[in-house]
Every structure is written in C-alpha cells, then in structure tokens.
Write a structure and sequence with these properties.
The protein is mostly helical. The protein has a domain at about 10-80: Alpha Horseshoe (Serine Threonine Protein Phosphatase 5, Tetratricopeptide repeat), CATH 1.25.40. It is built from 13 helices and no strands. Helix 1 (about 10-30) packs parallel to helix 3. The longest helix is centred in the N-terminal third of the chain and has 17 residues, at about 10-30. The radius of gyration is 24 Å and the shape is elongated.
Length: about 240
C-alpha cells in the first residue's frame, strides 16, 4: 500500500507541529540530515519550541557535530529550564567534545531536576574522571552503588577506575559483585582475570581469562587474551611453583 504524502495544515501552529512530528520520525529512522531540515522549518515558524531545538541537537549529536549539538541543546534548556533530557544530552555532548567542566555543569543540573535517574550520576563521575579527580569520581560511583545496588554500570566504572589506580584487589571484588548480579556480564570475567594477572596470581588469571573467552569468544579483545593465556602457560612451565 502506497504511503500518503504528508499534508501540512495552513496555520503556523499546525505546520510547526507537523514539521516537528515528521522530523521526529525521520530522526528515529536515522535520517538525520532530512530531520534537520524539518526541525529548522519548525523553528522558523516558532522560535520558542524547545522540542524542535532538542531534536535538532540530537541529530547533530548523531552526526558527531557536537558544537552544533551543544548550541541547540543549550537553546532547548534556555526555553525549558527543567528539561532533564536536554541537560543530560548536553552533558554527553560536552564529554564527547572533551569539555568536562561543561559536562559536570549539565549533569548536575539534570540530577537536580531528576535525582532518581542513575545515568546522569554515572556520567557525572565520568566527567570528574576526565578532570583527573579520581577521588570525587570514586565517591560518586560508590554513592550510586549504595543508592542503586543493582545498577551494574556503577560497579563497572568504579572497578575500571580502581584498575587504573592499580588497586587490583578492590577492583576484583567489585567485578565479582557484578558477576553475582549478572553471571553473563563477560567484561567482569576479563576484569578479574586482569586483576589476578597484575597481582601475580597466574593460575587464577588463566581461569578467568578462559571464562571470558567462553562467554565472548568473538570479542575484539579475544586475540589479546588468547596470546596472554599462551604466555602464562609458558611462564607456568618455566616456573611451576609460580614464584614471581
């Protein structure tokens, strides 16, 4: 059955709504350039429509034009000061552009609007990491774990940061907690394997590396893990008592 062409209403308000609706549909179909044109048409009719600016910002974000994305998302937040989604997406764009200070400001505003959504809190921690504020990031991740004990991403981000800080023992405990929450979370097995490897516990490292490969044999990290397993086997043959 042929799709009927969209007929725009004659009044400005209806035309604005139609342009925005069509743009939303195009954006959801990943037709970002076409969607941009329709959002701009909607804005020409009504320069105070936060949803058109928001959609436009999302399009430019998807096209990786973060400068324009930030510009239009900021406009959406100026029009609607409690626009959680716009502040959150604005923070993500600042992170992508490597502007952690802008990201922190945006995520804080998003959290103030809706403190119940953990994603903004998680990315706030990531922004502090980007600022080399590890202690602040760890505190944020820990608070998130306490408030949302089933939110696996918080455990993972804290564990990954602890690995960067060479606190392998504490990181391995967090990866273990992830596995208890979700035994299929393959990255946790790799994380534990890496921690044991760094701690010189080669037998335990090999066990978790194998578990990782069983869970995700086609991972892009699989070749590196396989090579490390072979190296550990060789080390075990030359040093059967696992003396470091």
């Amino acid at each position: 059955m042929a799709t009927k062409p969209i007929q725009y209403n004659k009044t400005s308000k209806h035309a604005e709504i139609d342009f925005c609706k069509v743009a939303d549909i195009l954006r959801q179909k990943n037709s970002y350039q076409e969607a941009v044109s329709h959002y701009l048409n909607a804005i020409l009719i009504n320069r105070d429509d936060e949803n058109s600016y928001y959609g436009l910002g999302l399009c430019y974000k998807a096209l990786e034009n973060y400068t324009k994305a930030i510009k239009y998302l900021e406009k959406a937040t100026e029009i609607k000061s409690d626009f959680y989604e716009a502040f959150y997406e604005l923070g993500l764009c600042h992170l992508a552009e490597g502007i952690p200070c802008g990201a922190i400001k945006s995520f804080v505003q998003a959290i103030q609007i809706n403190p119940e959504k953990p994603d903004a809190i998680l990315h706030l921690g990531m922004a502090h990491e980007m600022c080399d504020e590890a202690d602040m990031a760890l505190m944020i991740y820990q608070k998130l774990i306490e408030n949302s004990p089933k939110y696996i991403k918080a455990y993972e981000k804290k564990a990954d940061l602890l690995v960067k800080l060479h606190d392998y023992k504490e990181a391995s405990l967090l990866y273990n907690k992830i596995i208890k929450l979700n035994p299929e979370f393959y990255r946790a097995y790799l994380g534990i394997g890496t921690c044991f490897d760094k701690l010189g516990k080669r037998i335990e490292a090999q066990r978790y590396y194998r578990k990782f490969l069983l869970k995700k044999p086609n991972s892009h990290k699989a070749p590196v893990v396989k090579a490390r397993l072979e190296k550990l086997k060789t080390l075990a043959k030359n040093n059967p008592f696992n003396i470091i």
